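Example 3.2
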Amino acid sequence: MVIAADSRATYGDAPLMRDSGGKILPIDNRFCIATVGWTGGADRVVDEVKVQFGKARVDTTRAFIDLCEDVSFSYLKRYKERLDVLDEDRGDTSFYLVCASSDGIFSVEDGTSEQTYDYGCFGSSESYGEYILKQLYKRDSSLKEGTNWAVYAIKQAMSLDPSVGGPVYVAHIAKNGIKVLNQEEVLKVQQQISSQSPEFQRGLFDLVGRIVQARREINQITMKAYKLSLFNQQEAPIWTLAHQVVTEEDFTNGILSLGLLIDEMTVPSATRQEKNLAVQSIGELEKWLQEQRQPKEEIEKITKTLRQIRGLRNKKLPVHPDDAEFISVVMSWGLSFPPDWASLHVMAVGKYLLFLEDMLALLSTEKGQAKALR
């Protein structure tokens, strides 16, 4: 089972909202409780559940749910009149518990429980969460998929509901125990699911489209001056860059395609044999630009990007991310290590586009055009 929650709590009659600790409480490495609704009452019930759990013999999920039902009902019965007054003065004081074990997920409200099958959404944005998970859910899914769906639903709810916010907390519940993910692990999940959002994909398609246009414009300039295209036609590798990247394998496919675009250039000063091979080195490109009397510092600044991308690719297959050069490039780009593969892919694609735009600016200036046409 996967259970996830935001960390925004509501207090008083204002209401005041604060991003507190996680709402998920593991008990005895077998059960989890999450609270929904009014914080004051929910906390009192959870505290009492912990006390009674320590006294009682709870061997099964059913026994645990019965305990939660009894404590919840006793609290409501004891404070009924006071809660009625609070409702009139402050508004809604309702709350309930969501209890989970390896046997399933149960909601406990007003002293009774109901099991949720497949998946469940609880809280102020439960309708929106239901809409999202209905589109994503499939039976026999992996733990990773379930985690991604849960975090994605909560992050989407945050953009619509001010009552949902703060860090996201996630717990995995199995027969052999409970694992509460730390915030670094949750952050990696959030980074991965961000690469699957429509906004992310539209941004990646935009980068690739700009790459196609920049390569075309550079080829028009070199064709006019030298009767050849600097960049060979490579439609398949270019559009491979727009594919979704989540895993290291996805990144490897993308960086190999990007490396192919860098390799397959035809430098105007190349020999006939080299042109037939249609594979040029970065050094040949630098040499040609220097022949056009372009400043060496400017040239090296532009081609440095290509060497960095090569540094991500030039390994024994598959790409080895523990390579010193690989790590150096990732860190120099301001990313953490180990990297989020989607972010690293977008960074590499963006860096290649930056190289193309710098080249285009270099060749498109009036001075550069005159030199190229000599």
